[in-house]
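Here is a complete protein record:
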Amino acid sequence: MDCVFSDASMRIYRLNISDLSDEDYTNAFFDMSCERQKKCKGYRFADDKKRCIAADFLVRKMLCESLDKNTDEIEIYTDENGKPYVNESIYFNLSHSDKYVAAVVADKPVGIDIEKIKSVKSNMLDYFCSEKDKKYILGEEKSVCEDVPENALERFFEVWTFKEAYLKCTGEGISKKAAVIDFEAYEKYQTVFDGFVLCVFSE
């Protein structure tokens, strides 16, 4: 569990799922709520189960640290939009992609997204991006390819992760509204590492 950013109002963590032992996974599974255990059991693939457990483990560790409580004292709920919360004066959010889970804790509403940089279809630009976003991603290129050009993928995922984080912060989730959110108009924390992009947006 690495703290990748910390200031007076916010801390951001990431965890590689391979860093937890089998014993860690077993213990963390039984720390989860019955609802989350049921969700975890429903996953077909081992890595999906690991991401589910590791995300809960990471959130509980950072909440215990922030609230000075034991893990069995932490009750995590979800609202009508599926956003997790605790009945405390603290906000948090989590995300996972491939081998990483990431989480953020803050003193105001917050959203986080992490994505592995990978090939995506060009039609995602039309669904997810404004014309201003497309210019940022593609520059002056006139792409008629089926996929987003490789040299533009990092910029695409910068836009993608910001919009995911923004909409998770507001509790709306990804929707067609994403195309009208101006990527360049908002302050955010964003970093690129090991082939991944991580972004946090806080109100």
